[in-house]
Every structure is written in structure tokens, then in C-alpha cells.
Amino acid sequence: MSTRTSDITVIGGGVVGLSVAVGLLRAGHGVTVLDGADGDLRASQGNFGLVWLQGKGARYAPYAHLTSDAVSGWPEFAALIEDLSGVKLSLDQSGGFEFFTDEAEFQDFVADLKQQQQFLGNRFSFETIQGDDLRRSHPEIGSGVVGATFSALDGHVNPLRLLKALKDAVTALGGNIVTDAHVTDVLKGPAGFNIALRSGVRHSADRVVLAAGLGAATLAEKLGFETRVRPQRGEVLITEKLSERLPFLSSTIRQTDEGGLQIGGTKADAGYDDSETLDVMARLAQHAVTVLPALRDMRVVRAWGALRVMSPDGHPVYARSTTHPGAYLVTCHSGVTLAPLHGGALAQWIDNTADAPTLEAFDEDRFTFSPAA
Ligand SMILES: Cc1cc2nc3c(=O)[nH]c(=O)nc-3n(C[C@H](O)[C@H](O)[C@H](O)COP(=O)(O)OP(=O)(O)OC[C@H]3O[C@@H](n4cnc5c(N)ncnc54)[C@H](O)[C@@H]3O)c2cc1C
Fold first, then answer.
1. Which residues line ligand 1 (CB under 6 A)?
2. Tens-digit pLDDT profile for residues 49-73
3. Pick the CATH number of 230-310 from 3.30.9.10, 3.40.309.10, 3.90.550.60, 2.10.109.10
4. Cβ neighbours of residue 302 under 8 Å, at least 6 residues apart?
5. Ligand 1: which residue has its CA nearest to atom 4?
């Protein structure tokens, strides 16, 4: 058994943990990332790659502001990560649609966006487009679409290349990523944290950031956190590559920079089962053909299910442990969208510097007083 030491250890090497590591390294810390086993659940490998503002925080102003900051930080963050890693992220922030086939859902979402706009003022804008008007500008859209919203602020990125680029960026900044390093226990002693790995190796650190996605479900309690994350399954289809570019981006149909279409957006409570299901795949295909009838003859080449990492109210959690000072919990859905925050100003919050962002609204104490817990 050996013991290795670092200034700050990040538990979890998904998009969230790696982004946090980038931020801490930029702030001058020595950082080790301990990442789990190959078979772990990894939302970062199964997501949709959206960098998305529409609807985010429509019912929670702090989340609307947080997402808006992150979305506007993306061009600079992408340039930094591309520079450090040499990997192209294919960030495209030229706007995106939400398409609706149900009038009541359309009206509810428009009401949400109006609320979001009240929170964000001139930092957010969107258009509401009726189905027939949409078909005048986009004749390829099917008659089953009753309306759409569009925001010029939305976009997407290549999510798998983002993950690879973040790993390379951590290494380029002098960080240490340890793979197959499943953490089984974390203890606080007088000299810092003592971290036990399944392999028998022990690791010590002055401070610990728990960013292990669904792995936080077991480790959070050991560090005195109250948040209990839960899985939510999303399913995704990938089609064969198209020779021409799709004329739009939407939250449920997007064209990857390699040419295939990614179709998704489902939500299901299925516990820890991340398999794809025939009925949801059929519904996704039906949705895509309703929005874009020309897709009728496209071949689907891949499908998968992946589990979102959800807090009790769906909003991010940034918490300092009161029982284990020096331990931090960072967990969220939309870890792609929020990456510029995690790779930037969050380090100041962890260091508690005078210029740290105000993140009290994301503390886990909100679950103590809210029925959402
Ligand atoms: C279908 C789907 C679509 C999505 N679409 C989008 C989108 O368009 N835009 C967006 O912003 N977000 C999207 N998301 C959400 C986004 O993917 C997640 O917010 C993000 O990937 C979470 O990253 P994470 O690092 O917290 O978790 P994960 O990616 O799950 O990574 C957790 C890591 O922790 C490690 N780990 C776990 N337990 C331990 C342990 N005990 N010891 C050591 N390591 C451990 C694992 O090995 C893993 O590498 C989507 C998610 C899904 C499922």
C-alpha cells in the first residue's frame, strides 16, 4: 500500500470534475483527479452537447444568472481549452430552436421564457414563432409543429471532444489524473483528508472536491453533505451522416460536426438502468420525422441511454462541508453548459477569495427548508 499526496484532490473525472480541476490549476493549486472505473456511469460520455440558455432557471433566478454567465463565458473558455489541448471543440453558438408539437406545452414554455427574461433583462432574448410562420422561413419543418421558440444565445459543442480536451488541458496545466481510481472512503484527520481507493492505494490531500456525478450518491454522506443525487435516464439516437448541413440547431435534433444527427431529449426515472428501450427509440424517431419529415428515410446507426445526475430540485449544488472543513461538493445537471464557470470562477469560491462569485443560492441548505428535498 502506498500513499500519495496532493494539495487539492478532485474525486471524479467527468466533465464537471475535470473542469473544476482546470480552474484550480489555473488558480495555482497542485491538483490530482481521481477517476473511477471503466464501467462507471458517465453522463459526460452520453450527453447532447448543448450549451443552452432557453428555459434554464425560468423558475429560479440564481440559476438563470449562473447559466447566462456560463453561456457568455463559452467562447473564451473554448479558446483556452483548445489552446491547452490542441483539440477542436467545434463550439457553435449561432442560436437554437425549441420545437413544439403540443399547443399547451408550447404556451407553458413561452410563459417560462417570459419569466426567465424578467430575471435576466437584456441578457436574454427569444422569439416566439407560430408553426405557419416557421414553415415560411423553414419550409422543411413538418405540419405537426405548432410553434417554436428561438434564442440567438443557444449553441452546442462536441461533447466527447470536450471531455478529451479537458483531460489534456488538466495534464498540460500540470495536473495529475489517476484512472481506475475508485474512491471507497474519505476520512478527515488532523493533517487533511485520507482517501482510500478500491485498489488499496491511499491518497492524502489538504482539500477534497467531490465531483463524482452519481458516485456522489454514496460519498456525499461520508463527507457530511446532505445532498442525495439521483439518476434520470435520457435516450439518444444517432443517424447516418448527412452530406449537407441541417439548417438549424434544436434542443432535440442537432447535427454533430461529423455530420450525423443526434436525436434526443427524453426523461425517465429508471433507477440505475441506463439501457435504451425500443418504445422510447420509436418515439424519438417519430418526433424527428414530425419535426423534419425529410428524415423519414434516414438510417439510425446507434442508440444509447445515459443517466443524468440530478439534485433534489434539479439545480446545481455548490456546498462546503460543515462537518469536514476543506471538503466541497460540486454537482449539477448541464455540466457541459456550466463548464466555463467550473473551469473559472468556481476556483475563487473554493478558495473563498474576495472576488469569489456569490453561490449561496446553490448551497445544500436549501434542501433543509424546501419541500423539494
Ligand atoms: C442524455 C443526456 C443528455 C445531456 N445533455 C446535456 C446537454 O446537452 N448539455 C449539458 O450541459 N448537459 C447535458 N447533460 C448533462 C451532462 O452530461 C452532465 O451534467 C455532466 O456530464 C455531469 O458530469 P459529471 O462529471 O458530474 O458526471 P459524470 O460524467 O457521470 O462523471 C462522474 C465521474 O466520476 C467518477 N466516479 C464516480 N464515482 C467515483 C468514485 N467513487 N471514485 C472515483 N471516481 C468516481 C466516474 O468514473 C466518472 O468519470 C446530459 C446528460 C444526459 C444523460
1. 11-17, 34-36, 40-44, 46-50, 181-183, 211-215, 219, 234, 236, 264, 306-309, 331-337
2. 999 999 999 999 999 999 999 999 9
3. 3.30.9.10
4. 237, 238
5. 47
